[in-house]
Amino acid sequence: MQHVFDAFSLGSLDAMLALGIALVFGVMHLVNFAHGELVMIGGFTIFLTAGLPWPMIVIIVLLVVAIAALLMERIAFRPVRGADPTTLLVTSFAVSILLQSVAAIIWGRRAKGVDFASGLSEPVTIFGTRIAIVDLVSIGVAVVLVAGLAIFLTRTATGTAMRAAAEDFVMARLLGVSANRVIAAAFALSGILAGAASLLLVASTGTIQSNMGLQPVLVGFVATVIGGVGSLVGAALGGFLLGVLTVTMQVALPLEARGYRDAAVFAIVIVILLVRPSGLVSSAALEERV
Fold first, then answer.
1. For residue 195, which of 42, 82, 127, 248 is within the disulfide window of CB 3.0 to 4.6 Å?
2. What's the pLDDT tens digit per position in 59-110?
3. Average model confidence (pLDDT) for the chain?
4. pLDDT tens by residue, 5-46
5. Pairing between strand 112-113 and 207-208?
6. Nearest 10 degrees: CA dihedral of 63, 184, 37, 148?
7. What does the alpha-carbon distance between residue 59 and residue 135 come to, in Å, rounded to a whole number?
8. Are residues 224 and 238 in contact, defined by beta-carbon separation less than 8 angstroms?
9. Residue 113 pairs with which residues in a beta bridge?
10. Chain centroid to CA 32: how far?
């Protein structure tokens, strides 16, 4: 039971990261590697607001990261929106390195301890098993965010426009969909997901640093590829699957081999992609290109 909760907790976090990347890719065909720096911005926002009541910290972090995502789109990506994918990719790397460097100049590169929601590390007993509260919170937050995102995409005009743009951006614009509004909405939603991920990460680890977003964005990207690039359902599925694989390898491998856990996980990822090159849930456009 402990391992099941660990797997779903880690999978929930990976799913949030993958969804944030998949949202932007869906409308811009941009793999935004600067998404990890949104997580970092959320972490340092927690650091700066330490001492405030935790509900206020949560609201401030989500707002700050969403605004940072909107500024990132307006300043860095909108001017090169019509460029080829390589230019967009290089731009995302440039933004990532710039934000990491700025954070390192201001706060240094050493990890800093943060006392945020430390009570979430306390365990509760469920079915005779002691489960950390933060694991339950991670699962609950992921369920709420995924459900909320699904409602937004299917029940609102902006969500419908985003889905139309993801299917055929040119045709959506010809039918009157505002490109600026749709792309800004995608970045804002990705910022909210990144902010939620940063809150859960800091609550779990109690530390922040300038490069704290590097590993999460790589995990989110891998989860997106496993699930199927361009599919939001696939991104969420890929995140949960990656979390399950990670915990399974941690449990199944012998003690002396657990240092190679990530190698084993990515070996399985390679096998999955050999069998399903376009991911577990492929978008129609991607299937046509494959």
1. 42
2. 999 999 999 999 999 999 989 887 888 888 899 999 999 999 999 999 988 8
3. 85
4. 888 888 888 899 999 998 888 888 888 899 999 999 999 999
5. antiparallel
6. 60
7. 20
8. yes
9. 207
10. 11
Tokens of 239: 């995140």
Length of the chain: 290
Burial grade of 227 (CB within 10 A; 0-12, 13-18, 19 or more): buried
What does DSSP assign to residue 50?
B
Structure tokens at 108: 């240094």
34 CB-near residues (< 8 Å, 6+ apart): 72, 76, 92, 93, 95, 96, 99
**pLDDT band, very low/low/confident/very high, at 290 (cuts 50, 70, 90):** very low
Contact in structure between 40 and 103 (CB atoms under 8 Å): yes
| Span 203-247, pLDDT tens digits | 888 889 999 988 888 888 988 888 887 778 888 888 889 988 988
pTM value?
0.89
The first and second tokens of residue 115, run together, are: 């006392």
Indicate the pLDDT class of residue 284, thresholds 50, 70 and 90.
very low
- The Cα–Cα gap between 239 and 223 comes to 5
Would you say residue 288 has pLDDT above 50? no
Look up residue 129 and give its amino acid: T
CA 134 from chain centre, in angstroms, equals 18
